[in-house]
């Protein structure tokens, strides 16, 4: 028997659910409504449209076979009716109707439904500071805003820009403005690091250093307190607690909040922070109303807690689950690991699961294995370093998260994706060590970097590997009084070790090449605690095992070695 379905929201989750349902139930009457005139577009592609990587906004709305997804497309190709410029005002759950208003004609009507889906998305957060309504101030709310930003830049009206917010969108917008258009760009972030809650601080610091190398000014632990008026209603600058920055364009990218007012007003269960509560079938507290996309609260597969995951990829998967369940085909959405990846100029950074800091806050006995292997076979032309961090629980040996930072290629995404699959199944260190990855020298080493990170974690759990925290090590380099008995044992080639010995002094830094340690270890005084130092940490670990066997030495390994430190401390060590 035919049923009526109303879908509120026509960007990602809504269209996916509507089209899936129409395929499964061709005789059902399905109507989508959206308050915008542009629908079904790739919002995550907006920074790449601004940068010019995507040449025209229509490409964000096209199918893979280059047909624009507009109302005619959905009606004639999908059999789904779409009402654009139409806002949902209220839900009457008893009568099963939705009151909607056409924003052009102001005409209201009631749409009846057997099933209703809420895919209302999220809205950008607006800073509560003076000047946010000035001309030239934008939040990336929709495709219309992106079109206007690009038009202003293309017309030569923007020479200086300030991006407020150091999350993924803010960083991508800073890159877009700088890379193609040559706009003098400043990035502000209130937190002490970029990408807060997505990566640990040392990964954020590596990214920050690369942005600075690419001429983006970056200020963390700093917030905008006022946007300045040029006297004609246009923005001309940003005032922070520390400085005043000139700007023709200000982009606020300080996060988004779920659009859940319609659900709350209808008496549906909504989390205190705004996400619509759903079960694994994505039903709300009313079994005839489903919700998906950026408006819902989802389950975090590591913590088991509610979380917010506003990503187009997830919205599409959730939309399919909604379509299945409405059609009577049981389907579940179990939750998310929080997988993330982004491009920043010539680098790529990604993560999945929990950061080390988040794992500690959740009460896990958390530690991390930090490695810096080549992103493919070391002998293959063009190989480059990737920094990889495996977060794990020492008691259960469960892997809790993975982070990676490397060149803009496939090396980061392949490891993050593999890790996400295992983490979602509560994979252990041993599972990661045995994980089969496709191998050929252009793609990876024979021992994949994800396996190597697991081996290190296993060695740490078995107390074979004792590491020094790199933050503590860097602090000691600045002030040797922090640990007066420490000394670096540099097992690299003497030509590599010599500049450090000259800089920090022979009383703090000694060179003894890896291949000579077994023959010359007795030259090392036994009253020091040695921080063993090499390029990646592999040789350092082997030397540590040997000296532990001797029994007269106290040692720690600087995991990641120069590959890591050069990306964190470019003022004293060159790195690529």
UniProtKB/TrEMBL annotation:
GO molecular function, one term: oxidoreductase activity
Keyword field: FAD, Flavoprotein, Oxidoreductase, Redox-active center
Keyword Oxidoreductase: yes
Needed co-factor(s): FAD
Start and end residues of each Rhodanese domain: 482-574
Pfam families: Pyr_redox_2, Pyr_redox_dim
Cross-referenced SUPFAM superfamilies: FAD/NAD(P)-binding domain (SSF51905), FAD/NAD-linked reductases, dimerisation (C-terminal) domain (SSF55424), Rhodanese/Cell cycle control phosphatase (SSF52821)
Family designation: Belongs to the class-III pyridine nucleotide-disulfide oxidoreductase family.
UniProt protein name: FAD-dependent oxidoreductase
Biological source species: Desulfobulbus oligotrophicus
């Amino acid at each position: 028997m035919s049923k009526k379905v109303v879908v509120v929201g026509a960007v990602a989750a809504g269209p996916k659910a509507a089209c899936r349902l129409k395929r499964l139930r061709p005789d059902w009457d399905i109507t989508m409504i959206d308050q915008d005139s542009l629908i079904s577009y790739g919002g995550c592609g907006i920074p790449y449209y601004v940068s010019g990587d995507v040449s025209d906004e229509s490409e964000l709305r096209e199918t893979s076979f280059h047909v624009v997804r507009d109302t005619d497309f959905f009606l004639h190709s999908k059999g789904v009716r779409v009402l654009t410029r139409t806002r949902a005002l209220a839900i009457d759950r008893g009568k099963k109707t939705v009151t909607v208003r056409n924003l052009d004609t102001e005409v209201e009507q009631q749409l009846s439904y057997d099933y209703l889906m809420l895919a209302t998305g999220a809205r950008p957060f607006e800073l509560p500071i003076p000047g946010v309504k000035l001309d030239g101030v934008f939040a990336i709310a929709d495709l219309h805003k992106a079109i206007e930003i690009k038009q202003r830049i293309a017309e030569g009206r923007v020479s200086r820009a300030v991006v407020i917010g150091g999350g993924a969108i803010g960083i991508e917008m800073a890159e877009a403005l700088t890379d193609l258009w040559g706009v003098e760009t400043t990035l502000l972030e209130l937190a002490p690091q970029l990408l807060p809650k997505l990566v640990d601080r040392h990964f954020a610091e590596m990214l920050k250093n690369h942005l600075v190398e690419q001429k983006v000014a970056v200020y963390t632990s700093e917030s905008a307190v006022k946007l300045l008026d040029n006297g004609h209603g246009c923005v001309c600058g940003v005032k922070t607690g520390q400085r005043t920055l000139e700007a023709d364009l200000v982009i606020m990218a300080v996060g988004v909040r779920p659009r859940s007012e319609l659900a709350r007003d209808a008496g549906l269960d909504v989390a205190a922070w705004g996400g619509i509560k759903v079960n694994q079938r994505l039903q709300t507290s009313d079994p005839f109303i489903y919700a998906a996309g950026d408006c819902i609260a989802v389950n975090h597969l590591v913590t088991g807690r509610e979380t917010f995951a506003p990503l187009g990829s997830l919205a599409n998967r959730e939309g399919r689950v909604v379509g299945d369940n409405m059609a009577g085909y049981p389907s579940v959405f179990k939750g998310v690991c929080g997988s993330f990846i982004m491009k920043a100029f010539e680098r790529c950074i990604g993560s999945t699961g929990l950061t080390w800091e988040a794992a500690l806050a959740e009460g896990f006995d958390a530690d991390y294995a930090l490695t810096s292997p080549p992103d493919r076979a070391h002998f293959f032309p063009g190989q480059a370093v990737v920094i990889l961090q495996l977060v794990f629980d020492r008691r259960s040996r469960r892997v809790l998260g993975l982070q990676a930072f490397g060149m803009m290629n496939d090396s980061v995404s392949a490891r993050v994706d593999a890790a996400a699959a295992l983490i979602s199944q509560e994979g252990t260190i041993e599972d990661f060590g045995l994980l089969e990855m496709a191998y050929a020298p252009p793609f990876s080493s024979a021992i994949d970097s994800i396996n190597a990170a697991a081996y290190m974690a296993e060695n740490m759990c078995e107390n074979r590997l004792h590491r020094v925290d790199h933050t503590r090590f860097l602090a000691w380099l600045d002030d040797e009084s922090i640990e007066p008995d420490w000394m670096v044992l540099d097992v690299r080639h003497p030509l590599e070790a010599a500049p450090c010995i000259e800089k920090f002094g022979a009383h703090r830094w000694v060179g003894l090449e890896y291949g000579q340690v077994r023959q010359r270890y007795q030259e090392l005084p036994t009253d020091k605690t040695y921080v063993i130092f090499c390029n990646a940490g592999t040789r350092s670990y082997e030397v540590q095992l040997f000296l532990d066997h001797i029994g007269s030495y106290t040692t720690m390994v600087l995991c990641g070695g120069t590959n890591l430190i050069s990306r964190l401390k470019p003022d004293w060590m060159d790195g690529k």
